[in-house]
Amino acid sequence: METQAIDISEEAERQMTKAEEAYGQAQALVVTTEKEYEDAGVFIVDLKTYKKNLEKERKDLTSPLDTAKKKIMAKFKPHIDNIERAIAQVNGKMTTYFSEQEKKRLAEQAKAEEKARKERERLQKRADTAEKNGNIEKSEALREASTNVVKTPVESQKKQTSQTTMVETWEAEIYDKLSLIEAVAKGEQSMELLEVNRPALNQIARAQKDTMKIPGVRSVCKKTIRKL
Predict the structure, then answer these.
(1) Which site in 18, 162, 183, 202 is 20 to 30 Å from 44, CA atoms measured?
(2) 219: closest CA among 227, 210, 21, 114?
(3) Which residues, other chains included, contact 194 with Cβ-Cβ below 8 Å and sequence gap of 6+?
């Protein structure tokens, strides 16, 4: 795909040049005296102005594109959403059918296993009776026959169609958060399993500042320069 040239205004080019020059000045800046500190305060205000001007020039170019994109997305979104819902519905129906068939298969498998068990027990009892009656040859034959009794396998539900296949995806469900926390605290599970809510902690830090008291957490003050 051929890349289209971007028509940048002279003002935007001027602001970009000023930004590059300002970046170089910032790299060379030294603050060791009150005068240099005062000058740096003026300079940082200028830098923020340069940034604001660049953002304006950028938005002048991108706003029409953003508007066009929103209109296109709005046109396609309901249809894409409907397709996604349709996929979920069909997937749900296929999964339900598969689960029902698998449940039936397991039930039939259990019946076959129970039938085989009872047949083995029956032959074992006959073997015991034959042995008590002194018919060793018959007893051995019956015992061998009992070991050869196996369950009839019930074929598993087919997971594939001509164009799809059933895929199992496992995910974790937290049903007892406190137990998980205790396991991590005891070292039985990794700390990575617990995600820290930084936005909530930052909000508490902003409100309580250096009076914040939360075990394992401390309030840190980071200083920045702001225009008066």
Answers:
(1) 202
(2) 210
(3) 180, 181, 184
First-last CA distance in the chain = 49
C-alpha radius of gyration, the chain, whole number: 38
Under 8 Å between Cβ of 151 and 109: yes
**Which stretches of the chain are DSSP H helices?**
10-28, 34-132, 136-147, 177-185, 198-208
- The residues that bridge with 160 in the sheet, in sequence order, are 165
Question: For the chain, what are the domain ranges?
Answer: 10-170, 171-219
**What does residue 217 show for φ and ψ, rounded to 5 degrees?**
-130, 140
Rounded Cα distance between 98 and 160, Å, is 10
Per-residue pLDDT of 161-220, as tens digits, reads 777 777 777 788 888 989 999 998 999 999 888 888 899 999 999 999 999 999 889 999
Amino acid at 85: R
**Model pTM score:** 0.56
CA–CA separation, 156 and 166 (whole Å): 13
Question: Which residues 6+ apart lie within 8 Å of 148 measured at CB?
Answer: none
* pLDDT value of residue 8: 84
